[in-house]
Structures are given as C-alpha cells and as structure tokens.
Amino acid sequence: MPTRKYTYYDFTLSLCPECLRRVDAKIVFENGNVYMLKRCNEHGNSKVLIADDIEYYKNIRNYNKPSETSYKFNTQTHYGCPYDCGLCPDHEQHSCLTVVEVTDRCNLTCPTCYAGSSPTYGRHRTFDEVKAMLDTIVRNEKEPDVVQISGGEPTIHPQFWEIMDYAKSLPIRHLMLNTNGIKIAKDFEFAKRLKTYTPDFEIYLQFDSFENNVLHELRGADLWDIRVQALENLNALNLSTTLVVTLQKGLNDHEIGKIIDYALQQKCVRGVTFQPTQIAGRLENFNPETDRMTLTEVRRKIMEQTDIFTGDDLLPVPCNPDALVMGYALKLDGEVFPLTRYINPNDLLDNSKNTIIYEQDEQLHGKMIELFSTGNSVEVAEENLKSIMCCLPNIDAPNLGYDNLFRIIIMQFIDAYNFDVRAIKKSCVHIVDKDNKIIPFETMNLLYRDDKRERLEELKQKA
Question: Can you give the three-state secondary structure of 327-357, one letter per residue?
Fold first, then answer.
C-alpha cells in the first residue's frame, strides 16, 4: 500500500498567512519535526514548522488544566475565533498578564516592532483613556495578576507618573513597566522614583544581544551602553527586573546561554523571558522562511547553551502549554539550584498541590533547612514554597525573597503562520485596546490594530 511520508497526528483550525482566512490544518510528524499543513483556496498549500521536538509537543497535551475565565466578557461570540475578540465568552483563559499601551509613540524606530511604534506614529493616550483601560482590567479580573504598562515607550508619556500612581492604587497584584531602558539609563532620579512603587513592581527591560550588529538589525541603534547603564542603575536600587529577549534564528539565538549567565550575575535580575519574533507589525529584516524560531527550538538551545537547566526544568505552563514554557531556580549563597525539576508535573494542574520534593537533592535540602531554621520546619518551608510556582510568584517564605528566585520563560506569540485556534483560545497574555476591549496579544497584532480593522471586517463577512 502507498504510505505518506509523514505521520498524521491531529487536526485544528488555522489561518492562511496571506489573507488571514480560517483554514483547516493537519498536524503531522515528519523527520523528527512537527509541521502544520494547510490549504487556502486562494493562496494554495503551506507547510509550517511548529516544533522540532515531537515528544515535547505530544506531552504538552498532558499539561492542560481547567480553564480560569474572566469575571466579565466584553464582546459576543458571533463570527467564531479569532473574529470576536474582546474577550468573548468562548475564550478559555482569563488575563494572566494584561498589557496597557499608554502611547503609540517611542523614542526609537525599531526595525522589529509588533506595534509599529516610532517618534511620529500615533499619539499618547489621554490620562482619562488610560484610567478607563485600567478600570476595564479590574472589572474583568477583580484582582489582576499582572498588569504591564507599555507602549510604544511608556516612559515618554507626558503624564507617566500620574498613570503609574493610578495603576498602583488599584488592586493589581504585580505591576510591570515595559521599557527599552533609555530613560532609566540616563536619569538615575527617574529610576529612584520607580523604586517607590515596590513591592510588587518590576521592570520588563528590553535586552536582545551583546552584539552591536544584532542591536542595529533589531533596534536600529547601538544600545549596548544604554543597557549597561540601565542595569547599573537598577542594580544600585535592587529594583526587580526581567530581561526580555526578542529572538531571531541565525541572528541572536547563539547568545541565549550567555544572556542567562549574564542575568544570573545581576543583583536586580529575577529572570529572562525569551520571545521568538512574532510575524506582525514592522519587520524590516526578517524572512519567515528562514528566521522563524519555534518554542521547542528555544527550549533546546537553552539546554545546549547552559549547564543549569535540563528538560525536566523547562515545563509547559498549564494555562497555555502550546505557547509558554517555564523554569525556576533558586539563587542561594552565590549558587544556582534548579527548582522546577522537583515539582510533580501532575500537581501543576491542581493549584492546591504543587508539591516540591527537593529532598532528592541533598545540597538543596541542606540549604532549605538552613534558610528556614529560624522557627520554621522544613514542612513549613515546603508549604510556603508553593506560592512561587507560577509565572510571577509571591514569595511568602520568611527567609526567602523574590531576589532569591530566577525564572526562565519562553513566550511564543503565535502569528498567522503557526496559528492554532486551540492555543489562541487559551491565550492568557492580553492587551486592553483603546476601545476598552481585552484582546489576546496574538490576535491584536494580527487583526485588531487600526491598520488591520478594515481587513477584519471583510473576514467577518466571509466567516
């Protein structure tokens, strides 16, 4: 009998990368890789690499947990995903992290920018508009887990401090500032004022490379001195910081291990987030055929380029396992102890468990006994450590602080090439738009920005 050259695995709905129409898609295994095969009546067949690790891809289905939805939905379900975003009642995950774009403007014109920002693009949101956006998040979430003040470059907003003060007055568990670091590097007093928003406040700092040619290709400027000075100021204040790396295959993926090692040497840095480039917005130096990176490629390169993390340390995040990977470690007395490997994976699906079995590692166990020796048994330590096993943890252990934690996150923002409706319905990183709708990050950049709206309306009519 004739046989196909691939093994059929699954079926989903995707988008044509050319016209964004919904199309059927097959998930297949071929030569050790996972591909998506799809066909558009107008633009023909396409084949997209979505993973280079079949076993990991199959395993992510074991990490799905019951959906946690928002308290409020903002749109109706009518046309079908992804044409009803807002959030609609058919969405399967609440906003774990909500981005508030307070301005379209930026002090850079990066060749790679999902929002297409520049010094002349768009406008600043008014303070009242930003307040309404933040209030929308609180209505949807009651106590939002993470809210990220973003842009554009938010630090150039003329009412930046008023926005920050208002955000901090709300019942937001963790507030972040997404920035390129220019203002922090050039103005230490500015950084000092940011420190007043702690605790439960963090800098999300753009940090793509050590190499000037890479920075020019991604950001259009030599920003290395800015990065160094920004981190110097943040270290002086010990202001919690996450380094955020936009990855492009063949450009800066060889620096993954070096960035992790560098981050571990910085007093203020709590972790690194790796984000493969999303094919959306402004992409001047990007070829989708050669430059795309999958989540599993990033995961593999972390293991290849560091001695710290193994496959047991980099696990799917249950709220959206198709798009998120997490790994945690503890920094104790100048040493780094991977922690995620000591979690029972089955317990990740039940928020009441998250059992940590670090007694398997005698050295780490000894450190834990030492840390909790002040009136705390190891059993109490175990109970307290449950609270750190999420994307942005609260540390409630008496002698263990957030600065003892180091996390790796891989965040793959799905685009029209690898669009999988199963992952989109589980998207937990959202953007509140200027119309006060809560929209998944992925679909916002594909369909819901101003320059995409006309096409969206055409697609709705054909849905």
Answer: EEEEEECCEEEECHHHECHHHHHCCCCCCEC
Under DSSP, is residue 77 helix (H, G, I), strand (E, B) or coil?
coil
- CA triplet 129, 135, 141: central angle to 5 degrees? 140
Tokens encoding 1: 């009998």
Q: Is the dihedral of CA 183, 186, 189, 191 positive or negative?
A: positive
**CA of 16: how far to CAs of 21, 24, 46, 424, in Å?**
5, 9, 8, 15
Q: Burial code of 262-276, b = ≥16 C-beta within 10 A, e = fewer?
A: bbbeeebbbbbbbbb
Angle of CA points 444, 173, 256, to nearest 5° = 60
How far apart, in whole angstroms, are the C-alpha atoms of residue 297 and residue 276? 10
What are the per-10-residue average pLDDT scores of the chain (463 residues)?
Answer: 94 96 97 97 96 95 87 94 95 95 95 90 95 97 96 97 98 96 98 96 97 94 95 97 96 97 96 94 86 95 94 89 91 84 60 46 53 39 41 52 87 94 95 94 93 92 84
**CB neighbour list of residue 438: distance below 8 Å, 6 or more residues apart:** 70, 74, 86, 87, 95, 98, 136, 137, 140, 430, 431, 432
Which amino acid type is present at position 222?
D
Strand pairing of 22-30 and 324-332?
unpaired
Burial 95-120 (b: 16+ CB within 10 A, else e): bbbbbbbbbbbbbbbbebbbbbbbee
Residue 103 to residues 198, 201, 243, 311, 370, Cα–Cα distance (Å): 23, 20, 22, 39, 48
397: which residues sit within 8 A by CB, 6+ positions away?
Answer: 371, 372, 376, 381, 384, 385
d(CA 338, CA 330): 6
Q: Tell me how far CA of residue 431 lies from CA of 1, 305, 414, 419, 425, in angstroms.
A: 51, 33, 14, 18, 15
DSSP secondary structure code for residue 447 in this structure: I
Tokens 């470690």 found at: 329
Rg (CA), the chain: 22
Among 40, 49, 6, which residue's Cα sits nearest to residue 290? 49
State the number of CA atoms in the 13 A half-sphere of 141 facing the CB.
25
pTM: 0.91
CA distance 169 to 131: 11
